[in-house]
Each structure stands twice: as structure tokens, then as C-alpha cells.
């Protein structure tokens, strides 16, 4: 099994370019199903989750060609409306394909996505909303058999929680529905706006993306489109934390500062010096990080849950105690036991974690529990004296392209073997 070894204690200094946002390109790839033509997507990152989405598109009958960070998808001749169980299990966020497949094909069949490392991942908000849009859904032995007859019908929808995935599914189902869909309580993440920008570029009429009220005017036909994916704000948060914890200095090219205001606020409280330009963020770390009294993860524009684990690792060597309150996922703290192997002092109780900053961490043998937990292990390893060996790194491959190459370029002693 592949592993990453890190010989920690080196300052990270330098300039790197961010890759495209995983959580933007996945719903955009699903959206290409709605277009019976060619979609050209630029700044598409090389990630295993993207590979899984491409496998689903090819299973549906799409022709996908990848050249560098550009992916060309031809959905002119789709021949299937099901997602095989193994692909649903490979990536539970494949549920976001449901609205698009049902809208294009009139029906869809896929297995209920199981839970994941972060805990049960219910899809009730997705299914209730799609049902209100006219999708008949029957569950038999874990398979969702869906049919929308003559097509989806626009309506008013109220989300009880601003679910990112459910918001995306509703947009994908509403775009070619008959009539207007008004979504109240929508997620406001930047990835929602990126999805709407791609679809509007294909002739859709989606207004209000990025706010909690989105209006989708049903459009009968979408045309071929070209789009450049926004940068990955969680990758950005990860590298900022890596430079901060090693006392380094970093500039991230392609970053959109407006996507990272809550993360930058925490980094400033921790004593980092931040400067921003239109499409870049620079950080200079203090000699020793300061505590951050309370960090509450919230839907956007609050502090993003995905940045929680990397910044928890960063604060494990801060001067004083910090506290995280995780309001999104039940098992976000699964990585804590692995972080304790470095000597971190972290105490959890339900959704609260208190991190008592220690002067130093020591290298350890650890394993990734999930994608962002893996990022936390990398951050702790970089801050540790001695060698760390990280296993189950397939979790990292889901969301970080060229991770070890970038870290080496910045001055870390790191190897994938
Ligand atoms: C997206 O997941 C992201 N994934 C996650 O990133 C991210 O952490 C999350 O949004 C929150 O920002 C992708 O975009 C592919 P949600 P998603 O629906 O859509 C509950 C990463 O590391 N819920 O906003 O699954 C759910 O259980 C990943 O890149 C329901 O109860 O998130 C959770 O507690 C991890 N019923 C909360 O809402 C539903 O029908 C947030 O889920 C749907 C969700």
C-alpha cells in the first residue's frame, strides 16, 4: 500500500498555483449530462473523485477526453440512466447526478449512497426536493428507481438545511424543468455559483446563486458550453495552514480571497500576516502561532467544515488552547486519535474539540481516516520533529493533486513510496 513519509521541522516557503475546486467540478461534470452537445471544462483537477465522475459519465454513454487540465465531454448520445453500485460506493457524492440523469433521460436508477468516513450521509433533502419537482422515487433493496414521466415541473422548494448537494441537485433538476423553480434556504457556497455560471453559459437562466434564494427559469434546450472551474478553497486553506505551522511564507496563485474570508480570519487571529491581491493570497507565519479561542464550522459564508481538520492540526502547536465546534458532520473528529500519536493534546466531547497547544510534536506512524483528516496528518507531520509515515493515502488522492510535489517544492522533506 502506498505511503507518504515526511521528515518534519522544515519551513515551507514559496509560490504555488492552486488546482480547480473538487467540489465545483463534480457537480459541473454532472451538469454536462443535461447538455446534448459538447462541454469543455478547464482547470479540472486530476483527482480520484474526478476519475470516478468521469467513469459515471462514460457509463451513461458520454465520450470524455482529457488533455492536461481540460476535459471535453460529449453527452450527445446517452444510452444509460443508471449508476452502478460500485461507482456509487466509490464516491457517495455521486447522488448529485440524480437530478441531471432523471431530467435528461426521464428516469434514473442508482443505489442509495452509503455513509462515509464522516458519518451517515443522508439524502432526504435531495429526495424530498426532487419528489416535489415531479420525480417519482421508489426504493427497493437499496436501489432508488426514479421516474419523472414527461419531465420535471418547476415549483417552490424550502430546504430545512442549506445542503450543498441538495441545492446542486435541485438546480440540475430545475434547469430544464417546465416552469420556474424557486429555492428558499439554498446553500451559498462558491461552488454553487460556479455551477450556475457554467449552466448559464450553456443557456440556462439561474438567478441568485450564492444567496439563499435561487430562481431557476426552466429552459428547454441547453447548448454546448466552455467553462473554467474556480480554484479549490480547501486546498488553499490546507497550504496556508502548512506554511503557518512551519513558520514559513507562502503565496497561492489563483486563490480567490473572497472564498476564504473565515479561514483568513482564523489565521490572522493565530498571528499570521496575510496579504491579498485579486487572484492570490500570501501568508507570513509568526514565530509561534497563537491560540484561537473558538472556531465554529458553519455553512458558507461561515467557517468551512472541510478546513477544520487541517487547522486543528495547525493549532495543536499554538501557544494556548483553542476550541472547535463542528456543526456539520458527526464524525469530523475521527482524525483526533491519529493526531494524538504525534503528541497533540486534543479533547473531544461530541461536536466540541479542545486543542491544548503543545511546544512540539514528534513524528509518528499514522493512517488517514478521511480526506481532510489526511490533510491534518500532513500538517502535523510537517510540524513534527522526526519522521512520520502516513498510510491509507488514497483518501488524500480524492482531493489533493500533486500534494507531495508541491510540498517538496516548498521545502518539505516528503516522499510518496
Ligand atoms: C459537500 O458535501 C462537500 N462535498 C463536502 O466536502 C462539504 O464538507 C459539504 O458540502 C459541506 O460544505 C462535495 O461538494 C462533493 P451537505 P454534501 O449536503 O453536499 C446533512 C470534502 O472534503 N444532510 O451540505 O454532502 C449532512 O448529513 C467534502 O471535500 C442531510 O441531513 O454536504 C450534513 O450533516 C466532505 N440530508 C449536512 O447536511 C441531506 O439530504 C451537510 O451536508 C443532505 C445533507
Q: Please, how many helices?
A: 14
Uncertain ranges? none
Rg computed from alpha carbons, rounded to a whole number of angstroms:
21 Å
Q: Work out the strand percent.
A: 25-35%
Small ligands present: ligand EPZ
Helix content class: 25-40%
- The residue-averaged pLDDT reads 96
Strand count, sense and closure of the main sheet? 4 strands, mixed
Alpha carbon gap, first and last residue: 9 Å
Name the strands of the widest sheet in spatial order: 23-25-1-26
Structural class: alpha/beta
Shape: elongated
- Quick one: how many beta strands? 26
Tags for this entry?
four-stranded mixed sheet; binds ligand EPZ; elongated; 417 residues; single chain; 14 helices; alpha/beta
Describe the structure.
This protein has 417 residues and is α/β, with parallel strands linked by helices. It contains 14 helices and 26 strands. The strands form seven sheets. A four-stranded mixed sheet has the order 23-25-1-26. α1 packs parallel to α7, α4 packs parallel to α6 and α5 runs parallel beside α6. The protein is elongated and about 65 Å long. The N and C termini lie close together (9 Å). 52% of the residues are buried. The model has no long low-confidence stretch (mean pLDDT 96).
